[in-house]
Design a protein that fits this description.
Blueprint: E1 5-8, E2 14-21, E3 27-36, E4 39-50, E5 53-62, E6 65-74
Antiparallel strand pairs: 1-2, 2-3, 3-4, 4-5, 5-6
Length: 78
């Protein structure tokens, strides 16, 4: 629903996140802010489904730079 939630992470860090579905409900975007030392790490995860495939695109950025990874999972049926 886009409302911010707070969760306790390692070393009792307070992590704040929001989650929002796309209009067509085919993807979920989770945005997270993690305070770390004197910086904040911003993470965006986008979960997408298309048939039997789940794709997760994750981007993190901080004072140290930006990193993007994509994971693709195919459901195997036997």
């Amino acid at each position: 629903d886009g409302a911010e939630c707070t969760n306790t992470g390692m070393m009792d860090i307070q992590i704040k996140s929001t989650a929002v579905w796309s209009d067509d409900k085919s993807s979920l975007t989770v945005k997270t802010k993690v305070p770390w030392e004197s910086s904040v790490i911003s993470i965006t995860d986008v979960y997408k489904t298309a048939g039997p495939t789940l794709t997760i695109e994750t981007t993190s950025s901080s004072d140290w730079g930006t990193m993007t990874e994509t994971y693709v999972f195919d459901k195997v049926t036997e």
